[in-house]
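Before relying on records like the one below, remember that each one covers exactly one chain. Contacts with other chains, cofactors or solvent are not represented anywhere in the record.
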Amino acid sequence: MNMLRRMSLIALVLAFGLIAAACGGDDETTDTTEGTVPPLETTTTEAPAETTEAPADTTEAPTDTTEAPAFDLVAAVAEYESTIPDGWMNVGDVESFKDALAASDGLVIDVRQPEEYAEGHIPGAINIPLRELAANVDKIPTDKAVYVYCQSGFRAGIAISAVRLMGYDNAFAYKDSYAGWTDAGEEVSTDAVEAEVFGDPGFAPELVAAVDDYLSSLPDGWGIIRSVEDVQAALDAGSVILDVRSQGEFDEGHIEGAILTPLRSIATAENIAQIPTDTQFIIHCKSGWRATISMPVIGVLGFDNWKVFPGGWNAWTEAGAPVVTG
């Protein structure tokens, strides 16, 4: 391991420690040392030519007809969601983010649109718009911390779940995002930063393609339902709620008719079977973050009949909307 690689890994470990508090191979060596064997003596005596030819081997090696097993997309999604860490991959507030970034010398990715990035961004951040993340995995490293942010946190939630789903366990979200950064009075930049190319990260191409299909097809407005009134109107029209909170939270209170599919187990056969395919469903959680994280999971599983309510349970109950328990 060369010195640069060792320093990168040490910095990454330090960064992960801060985050938890807040929320090539060896080359073969060719031996060129000469031995002490004396040179062969020159002789003019030639051995008689061998005229007997060995019979040609006409035996063909057996053909391997064993096919590689088909890629199991559902199993890959289930593995990802079952390992989502405590803290939901959020690096924390602005100070925690700055500390982690300083300790790791990590890469910051702004997933907003290019025109938003051009108007001002966190200094040093590169721009990869959300819909294009999976098409640019060669610009996202695997050997140092990666932090994603957007304007207010919604797109950052989708982004962190998408990159983690593909295999980037070194990635985190700065949930407060650009709004939190500027509200804290931090420096901003309008100088574009060219993205470095790191190469193929080696993830399953089928999984990367599925994430790309999902991200690239995200609708205008990102599928958001913004108000309690709009949620109630959708429910009255036949939509249902998909609640991705825990069983305990659900039992304490939920929207009538809600379907419980906890975030870490959406991809189980039982929960997939519960998700409707013939009517619109609205994803929600307590405050919006888990609902946003769940969107790539649900999208990659093939569902496109969804909306998301970022206000979540908090907004619903603060509005005095009806709830049921048990």
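Strands lie at 107-110, 126-127, 146-149, 171-173, 240-243, 259-260, 281-284, 306-308.
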